[in-house]
Write a structure and sequence with these properties.
Layout: H1 2-35, H2 45-48, E1 49-52, E2 55-58, H3 60-90, H4 95-109, H5 113-128, H6 132-157, H7 161-169, H8 174-204, H9 216-227, H10 230-258
Antiparallel strand pairs: 1-2
């Protein structure tokens, strides 16, 4: 009975998504007709990929997608490191460490990401002689790391006090307590929200196009400037982002169903 109910829920959700997507497409087509816009969807595939002489050649949109995925993946790793380090500082006995971590959080979370990107690119990048892609990774890592730190902190604080008391009774140092007891449990608990944060990172990565990083969004803007296929290109770009975020959202949903049993 439970399996049938789960199957019904899945089918209902899929049907709802398909109907919503169909309604959006219908509204788009209707709006284009009202505006007198002439659609040119036949020109779109060559901006995705081409096959010549039996060889596959990625188009500019797929090349931009690769850049987006690379920037997102590297930023996600650094954001995790920064987030964990910040969370440990906030929970440490060091007053200086706690204030530094809190200052970083308040600065990053209370200023727009776009402003941070511009500040790093126009002010800090010339000083340290770093390129556009590196600047984008630093900006995204710092921004997402601030939010990841609160996720890590919540996960660590959710571990029962008895775990700390047991480690003290065993004579473990604070470092080994974190390493062997606290963090393995906390990381399992925060995996689902961290995966959801990765979805936000993918969407936020579109802002790096403002400093001429040729990611998916920048490639789309370049194609539009050359061809004036405004609606077609933006819809394709949006669809690609949607596929990426839905994939990660499905992963987050799977983790949320798996890990509450060990939380």
């Amino acid at each position: 009975m439970r399996s049938r109910l789960n199957a019904f829920i899945v089918i209902r959700d899929i049907l709802g998504f398909v109907l919503t997507l169909a309604a959006v497409v219908w509204l788009i087509v209707l709006g284009g007709e009202k505006m007198g816009y002439s659609w040119h969807w036949r020109q779109i595939p060559r901006y995705l990929f081409m096959v010549t002489a039996g060889e596959f050649h990625p188009g500019p949109l797929l090349q931009g997608l690769v850049v987006t995925v690379k920037i997102t993946a590297v930023s996600l790793v650094f954001a995790g490191i920064i987030g964990l380090a910040t969370a440990l500082l906030r929970l440490s006995a060091s007053t200086v460490g706690r204030w530094l971590a809190r200052g970083y959080l308040e600065l990053i979370r209370n200023t727009p990401l776009l402003v941070q990107i511009f500040f790093l690119y126009f002010v800090m990048a010339p000083i340290f002689n770093i390129g556009r892609t590196a600047t984008a990774i630093v900006a995204l890592s710092l921004f997402e790391g601030a939010y990841a730190s609160e996720i890590f902190r919540a996960g660590i604080e959710s571990i029962g006090q008895g775990q700390w008391e047991a480690s003290i009774s065993l004579g473990l140092s604070r470092y080994h307590t974190y390493q062997r007891i606290i963090l393995p449990q906390a990381i399992r608990r925060v995996l689902p929200p961290l995966t959801s944060q990765a979805v936000s990172l993918i969407k936020d990565s579109a802002l790096v196009s403002t400093i001429a990083v040729y990611d998916l969004t920048m490639e789309g803007r370049t194609i539009i400037a050359e061809t004036f296929l405004t609606f077609e290109i933006w819809f394709v770009v949006a669809a690609i982002y949607l596929v990426l975020t839905l994939t990660l959202s499905a992963l987050a949903h799977g983790l949320e169903r798996r890990y509450p049993r060990i939380a």
